[in-house]
Amino acid sequence: MQSPFPYSDTNKRYHTYDYYLKHKYGTKCARIPLDGGFSCPNRENGGLGCTYCSARGSGDFCSDGFLPPAVQFAREYARLTEKWGKRLPAIPYFQAFSGTYAPTAQLRALYDQARFYTDEHGAPVEIPAISIATRPDCLSEETVSYLAELNQTVDLTVELGLQSANDGTLSRIRRGHDVETFLCGYRRLQNAGIAVCV
User: Of 102, 152, 171, 187, which sits 20 to 30 A from 109 (CA to CA)?
Assistant: First the structure.
């Protein structure tokens, strides 16, 4: 039976990210949520963070953040391999807090290593892409320059948080930046040729 929607393999009436990945890489991909040990500018110096954010910085589905990301990846990959009954290409997804809120040297050490993650037995896992969630006020020129460099070695998507396009709402939810800051961060990534998920 043919799907009623042209961008679905599962009769869903919307273009799913699963569909996109399958058709881009030729197979289903596992997206592995990770905690890279970051914080957030809204939590520094006693800040409370955004009103909606959890204690784990939206990383509630990540493994224990006290573990190195490579160990988190191996554990989650084992769980998903068991769930699907086969090995799949995997996308390290740095979900918790702000994945670019660190010095460039720290980002480089973390993300360069993520291209070569292994399973719990040390066997290489195919890593077709890396996904990094962050805030638009955590995208310095130096950071974006490094991300553009990383994008030359692996497909990179930056998930850029847009909680509202209304400055009044952003203020009420304690977001810590305005709409123009989002637009500047978005344009900076686009101009560097980096795929952005809003």
Answer: 187
